[in-house]
Amino acid sequence: MEKRDELYAGKAKSIFATDDPDLLIMHFRDDTSAFDGEKLEQLERKGLVNNKFNAFIMSRLRDAGVPVHFERLLGDQESLVKRLDMIPVECVVRNFAAGGLVRRLGVEEGRELSPATYELFLKNDALHDPLINESVSITLGYATEQQLEEAKALSFKVNEVLTAIFRDAGILLVDYKLEFGVHNGQLMLGDEFSPDGARLWDAETREKLDKDRFRKGLGGVIEAYEEVGRRIGVTFD
User: Fold this and answer.
1) Dihedral (C-alpha) 143, 145, 150, 151: value to the nearest 10 degrees?
2) How many structural domains does the chain have?
């Protein structure tokens, strides 16, 4: 597999073309950001940890029947993925109240949400990823009605699979965001799943084991990511 030109550089990942037009290389950098890029740092081993964490989760989801863009690990900080036409809508599932839901609605942090809630956000840092709905998404051409229906169904399938994995490891899957894209007409889960884009709490102590440690200046960010990984079976060596 020949690595070619860089196509895109996000806040924490870079995407490279390959000699196969249907496949890309996703490079996980050590960069860490919060608040739409206002807080930036480099954390040693972050790229390696998120790459291997994501590979484990994507493989488990694929085994459960969720179509994913992940193909295979290429190295400590790189994975091979299918090229997707990404939909600019983030799908957020919440099992417990935290983050934006608490700020917007004054809900007590940690309140269990049953059934889980589902929200859509426009992926746009300049606008601070505003909350949108299905009607707006369809009218403005962000996604089709069918794509939104499939994304919602897949988001809850992911919830079913991952809630069980984390629960068995003594971890609460508080909330998470997913991004989807289209490959040869099929909707697939893209981007990544790691503690960067999910809230994960220890089930007994409610200790935060995710990116909130970086947002809130709690320290021990990568150590927390690795702790979650070890509990669910990720190998980082």
Assistant:
1) 40
2) 2
* Tens of each residue's pLDDT in the chain, 237 residues: 799 999 999 999 999 999 999 999 999 999 998 887 778 899 999 999 999 999 999 999 999 999 999 999 999 999 999 999 999 999 999 999 999 999 999 999 999 999 999 999 999 989 999 999 999 999 999 999 999 999 999 999 999 999 999 999 999 999 999 999 999 999 999 999 999 999 999 999 999 999 999 999 999 999 999 999 999 999 998
Residue 60 resides in a domain: yes
Looking at the chain, how many residues does it have?
237
Print the domain residue range for 58. 3-82
